[in-house]
Write a structure and sequence with these properties.
With about 650 residues, the chain is an all-alpha fold. The protein has 26 helices and 3 strands. It folds into 3 domains: about 100 residues, no CATH class; about 375 residues, no CATH class; about 110 residues. A 3-stranded parallel beta sheet has the order 1-2-3. Helix 18 runs antiparallel to helix 19.
Length: about 650
């Protein structure tokens, strides 16, 4: 008991001891989280969004789980559990005939109501967070406030790229997949196969069919921003919950959380349209939070990590090995004999563990294996990604293993350092699991036709490097021993991290490191006007192409969105014309024939109507002459065609 009270005074989250922390039970204050949850639910319903109910369920589940887990683990576990109804609703919608939005909303509402009753009834049994825990929660919240402030700066800055930032590269495909999900009532693999559907599925839950391209993009961008901020807070929580000394813990949490807003994280994600990466980071960070705890909660935490594995399979499958490895470590943390003893002594543990594993195996058999048979070959193919060096990932992984080894040697025989032991094990498990996934992707690439260090290995190395930054920060700031080592470890780590992640930036100056500033200054001249023009064309009910309307870059951007808004499948031949028609009227006419008789061409060249009429006279497509400015301003567009 003495060591628990000492840990509480020092600000260390001690797993499994929430009911004995010195601040006493919730009592009448149990109404506070219930009231906040009710306000979130009401706000969501007021703006016709299901996310208010999801937040309410998350908050109340965090309070409930805090009776068994640390505050950080409870919050991370709640994120994973609350996302499960969304995954199930989106994935089973076409098979069951149940609309995903209504299904997920109902699940969240029922969960929130049940948990509200549980929280009130258990108010005298559960402990309030200690003052030290509350202080760390406030520290972890700071990166979230930085993210909200960054959004405010962008909104208030004249000439900012409010829309253009979310319209690059893969974003057109993501919005297309959201449309497919709305049309199909969820994921229908027989019509529109999509193995990495969770991000698009979450976006679809905030929409009702039919939704215009502009409406879908707005929902997509808002969710992207929200998940990015949540990922920053979660990565900060990984550090705050792992480092014992309050000062270093606070410093590391703020730095790692704000690192999420750097070019290395948000910049790559924004430039290449990788909106699922912040979601993957959120799930990975929550898995690391859940992995920390005592053997008495191993079964509960393993069940949650199984859910995290399934969620990552639906987000970006190669990353699913990380929560799977963490779940195995959590389950066997007390030794095989201890696990068997707990399963025998508490039969409900056997039921929970068996049910979670059975659900995961069923998902693998029904969803993952068929997806691998149909789309598994894509893992050996290339894609649009910068030529990212493997060295950031390699250097950070080696540093994490070195720090973990040093920590393990220094704490040999010290039983009181259970938390430090767990940090070492979690770091090693994450690095090793990531290395296994990397080896698998490299082997697949070597067996295929793409370069060995191609799209999938590069993207995996990038995501793992981001997570490893949080791990090396935790290991270095939690270092023990002589003062020289306690100072040298974080200093050397900081220098290595800065050197690794600043090797690739978006040009000189601070805007090359902080994407929010670049967005606030418009990204590039005319970017927002271009985006408005593209959206106005895409929202027109008639199929549209642009040809020689502006620069080649603009025409390619516009056509990538226009053909994506008309494509009926990922393999629709019309998608091939997004960037191939610049100087070839035959290509233009071929694309128009696929789009149909009511297709419209918008151009900036006066001679294009005659060229189209001469090249494909039977098509009879309408041609509108204008400019980007006139289209963006609503003066010219397909609706103005005679």
């Amino acid at each position: 008991m003495a060591h628990v009270q000492q840990a509480a005074r020092a600000g260390v989250e001690t797993p499994g001891t929430a009911s004995r922390l010195p601040d006493g039970p919730w009592g009448r204050l149990a109404a506070l989280p219930v009231a906040v949850a009710a306000a979130a639910a009401a706000l969501g319903l007021g703006v016709d969004s299901p996310w208010g109910l999801a937040i309410a369920a998350w908050l109340l589940l965090t309070v409930a789980l805090s009776s068994r887990l640390t505050a950080s683990a409870a919050a991370g576990a709640s994120v994973l559990v609350v996302l499960v109804p969304a995954l199930v609703a989106v994935r089973t919608g076409p098979a069951t005939g149940l609309p995903p939005r209504e299904t997920a909303t109902t699940c969240w509402a029922v969960l929130a109501l049940v948990l509200a009753v549980v929280c009130v009834l258990g108010r005298h049994r559960w402990a309030r967070p200690s003052a030290a825990t509350a202080a760390r929660v406030l520290t972890v919240s700071l990166p979230g406030l930085v993210g909200v402030a960054s959004v405010g700066v962008v909104l208030l800055s004249p000439g900012s790229a409010l829309t253009a930032w979310a319209m690059r590269n893969d974003s057109a495909n993501n919005v297309m997949f959201v449309r497919f999900l709305l049309e199909d009532g969820g994921v229908d693999p027989s019509v529109h196969p999509n193995p990495a559907y969770l991000l698009q599925g979450l976006v679809s839950l905030g929409l009702t069919a039919p939704a215009s391209v502009s409406q879908t993009l707005d929902a997509y961008a808002l969710l992207w921003i929200g998940i990015t901020i949540a990922a920053a807070v979660s990565l900060a929580a990984v550090v705050a919950s792992s480092v014992r000394r309050p000062g270093p813990a606070a410093l590391g949490a703020v730095l790692v959380g704000c690192f999420t807003y750097s070019w290395f994280v948000v910049g790559f994600s924004m430039t290449y349209g990788f909106a699922n990466v912040p979601l993957a980071l959120l799930l990975l960070a929550c898995s690391l939070l859940v992995a920390r705890g005592t053997p008495s909660t191993a079964v509960l935490r393993t069940a949650v990590l199984v859910a995290g594995t399934v969620l990552l399979l639906a987000t970006w499958a190669p990353l699913a090995v990380v929560p799977a490895a963490l779940g195995l470590v959590a389950l066997l943390g007390g030794g095989p004999r201890g696990l068997v003893a707990r399963l025998v002594a508490v039969p409900v543990h056997s039921v929970v563990l068996g049910a979670s594993l059975a659900a995961a195996l069923a998902y693998a058999a029904v969803v993952v294996l068929p997806d691998l048979r149909t789309d598994g070959g894509n893992l050996s193919q290339g894609g649009a990604f910068p030529d990212l060096s493997p060295w950031p990932y390699v250097v950070l992984s080696v540093l994490a293993l070195a720090l973990a080894t040093t920590a393990a040697l220094r704490q040999r025989g010290r039983r009181e350092r259970r938390g430090a032991d767990q940090l070492v094990v979690r770091a090693v498990a994450t690095v090793v699991a990531g290395g296994v996934a990397m080896a698998g992707l490299v082997a697949l690439a070597a067996a295929g036709s793409s370069p060995v260090w191609g799209y999938y290995p590069q993207k995996l190395s990038w995501i793992l490097a981001i997570v490893t930054v949080a791990l090396v920060a935790s290991l270095s700031l939690d270092a023990t021993g002589p003062l020289t080592w306690r100072v040298a470890a974080p200093v050397v780590t900081a220098l290595v991290v800065v050197g690794a992640v600043t090797t690739v930036v978006d040009g000189p100056g601070i805007r090359g490191y902080v994407p929010a500033l670049k967005v606030a200054r418009g990204i590039e001249p005319g970017a927002e006007e271009d985006a408005r023009a593209v959206l106005r064309l895409a929202d027109d009910p008639r199929p549209t192409l642009v040809w020689l309307l502006d620069s080649t870059a603009f025409d390619d951007l516009a056509n990538s969105w226009l053909v994506a808004s008309e494509a009926t499948s990922v393999d629709d031949p019309i998608r091939a014309y997004a960037g191939t028609i610049e100087h070839d009227p035959e290509q233009v006419c071929a694309a128009l024939r696929r789009l149909g008789q009511d297709a419209v061409v918008v151009t900036g060249a006066d001679n294009v109507p005659a060229v189209i009429a001469a090249t494909c006279p039977a098509q009879g497509s309408q041609v509108v002459v204008g400019s980007v400015a006139s289209v963006a301003g609503g003066d010219v567009g397909p609706s103005d065609a005679p």
